[in-house]
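Homework help board

Subject: predicted structure for assignment chain

Our instructor gave us this sequence and asked us to write out the predicted structure in token form, then describe one feature. I got the tokens but I'm not sure how to describe them. Can anyone check?
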Amino acid sequence: MTEYKQLTPVEHELMEILWKIKEGTVHDVMNLLPNDRHLAYTSVSTILRIMQQKKVLTIKKSGRTHIYQPLLSKENHASHSIRKILKQVFSGNSVNLVAHLVNEEKLSHDELNKIQALIDAKKKELPK
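My token output:
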């Protein structure tokens, strides 16, 4: 995909389901919505068609049934979203982004150790 399309909150919600199940019909998506999330069949169908028009989903037809599959990977979406947040919120400063996460989130010792291990591994990859 050459051009990234930003997802609305409800599009993201439906994409999370499709990323999890790999492909599905409107009914499949609706069955995996939280019990307290009340979206009409026509609403979900319309949103999925809009996402297909945005080229973040593809449609495979099986008889009269439409099966939706993500074209946008979760990783690609995450990368674009983080870059957007980094640029818009932290003026492109990665240190400020990481500092915010470390200082503002309630991280456990295990999480901090995993973050430190990622940093240590990344340092080893860099030329000396």
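Reply (TA_rk): Your tokens look well-formed. For the description, you could write something like this. Residues 74-125 form one domain. That's the kind of observation they're looking for.
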